[in-house]
Specification:
Elements (H helix, E strand, L loop, with lengths): L1 H9 L3 H14 L4 H13 L3 H13 L5 H13 L3 H14 L4 H13 L3 H14 L4 H13 L3 H14 L4 H13 L3 H13 L5
Helix pairs in contact: 1-2, 1-3, 2-3, 3-4, 4-5, 5-6, 6-7, 7-8, 7-9, 8-9, 9-10, 9-11, 10-11, 11-12
Length: 201
Amino acid sequence: YVNRGFVCKNLKNYSDAIENFDKAVELDDKNSQAYYLLAQCCDILKNYADAIENFGKAIEFDSNNSAAYQERGNIYYRLEDYLSAAEDFSKVIQLSPNSARAYLRRGISLKNLGNYEAAISDFSKAIQLNSDYVYAYLNRGLANKDLQNYEAAISDFSKAIQFDSKYSEAYFNRGLCYQSLGNDENAKTDFAKARKFGYNK
């Protein structure tokens, strides 16, 4: 049933895949892989409550399944349950300490909880693990901006732009920092570039 479900999942026939994975866990209620694949299908179909429950079952029967923690954390994040998301990403870091993405995701969750210093620490760790991680520079810049560390934020946004010269969000936020420091000329230039590259928030 797991193999049959896997084939259905790859064919994007998620309803049949779920049916097969349900059968698999009926026959073996400790089958971590079946729960994990079932959770993925539920997630794709935006059935988040079932996805969270099944990722939980996958973890219960395989506590080292870092992918299950990562994907459940992503769902919690989408549902704006940032505390639960941060807890899951912490488990990923515990199991996979070199996961730059887990540090980034936990950092964003902590930033959304208003814990800027811890968020900055996580973004810095993500950058240490992946020196051209453009999203980590952007998010560290946003956290520094929220703390009114404008010079540090400008440095981060500039680094993001160095890696992606059309990064409209980085231009816009760097412009805000320049504006806060009274550098209206640079702010104006950055806002123009942000618009040019499609920033419309």
